[in-house]
Specification:
One of its GO terms (molecular function) is G protein activity. By secondary structure, this protein is α/β, with parallel strands linked by helices. It has seven helices and six strands; from the N terminus they run E-H-E-E-H-E-H-H-E-H-E-H-H. It has a four-stranded parallel sheet, sandwiched between helices. Strands 2-3 form a two-stranded antiparallel ribbon.
């Protein structure tokens, strides 16, 4: 499930992942909730992701609350060009702790990193906040596609490992995987 303030790019991130395209131009806010499916091949196993795109606007919050309980994973987004969306992350985390399952997979994403001129939230700020709350973090761009597939793939890997629980396989460490892969993508210094 994708959550975060209105306008941070949740729908665009999902469209980029699903269709490999970017919705440029007019911003059409999500009404209530929407979903799309995508099947990923994770280490030879087909993982079907049903991804719920929620409305960030306050007036739809009660609709969103009802869906938290069934979510296996949450991608919490802020917009690096919008300080308020970053400042609101703590409120989102409070909401998540209140409504989501205790063991929900959670990842923090700072989106719109292509907008370098407009950036107001430094990568270090996102990293610091994520560390404070013990959640994996990466910066993304729905516009260029940076780290979009990686974010969903990391979630799919974690969910696959959780559901299969093969004793022969070493435990999957989402944090380590994200750190290693982000470094490998060449977007950010280690
Ligand atoms: N430059 C840039 N713009 C983006 C990016 N992602 C989204 N946008 C723009 O940000 C605006 C909002 O994007 P949406 O994906 O609709 O935002 P949302 O979070 O789904 O908003 P709600 O449905 O209201 O919750 C649109 O004008 C997009 O074109 C990105 O990675 N880079």
């Amino acid at each position: 499930m994708l959550v975060g303030d209105s306008g941070v790019g949740k729908t665009c991130l999902l469209v980029r992942f699903k269709d490999g395209a970017f919705l440029a131009g007019t911003f059409i806010s999500t009404v209530g909730i929407d979903f799309r499916n995508k099947v990923l091949n994770v280490d030879g196993v087909k993982v079907k992701l049903q991804i719920w795109d929620t409305a960030g606007q306050e007036r739809f919050r009660s609709v969103t609350h009802a869906y938290y309980r069934d979510a296996h994973a949450l991608l919490l987004l802020y917009d690096v060009t919008n300080r308020a969306s970053f400042d609101n992350i703590q409120a989102w985390l409070t909401e998540i702790h209140e409504y989501a399952q205790k063991d929900v997979v959670l990842m923090l994403l700072g989106n719109k990193v292509d907008s370098t001129q407009e950036r107001v939230v430094k990568r270090e700020d996102g990293e610091k906040l994520a560390k404070e709350y013990g959640v994996p973090f990466m910066e993304t761009s729905a516009k260029t596609g940076l780290n979009v597939d990686l974010a969903f793939k990391a979630i799919a890997k974690e969910l696959k490992h959780r559901s299969m629980k093969l004793p022969s396989e070493p435990k999957f460490k989402l944090h380590d995987y994200v750190k290693r892969e982000v470094r490998g993508s060449g977007c950010c210094r280690p």
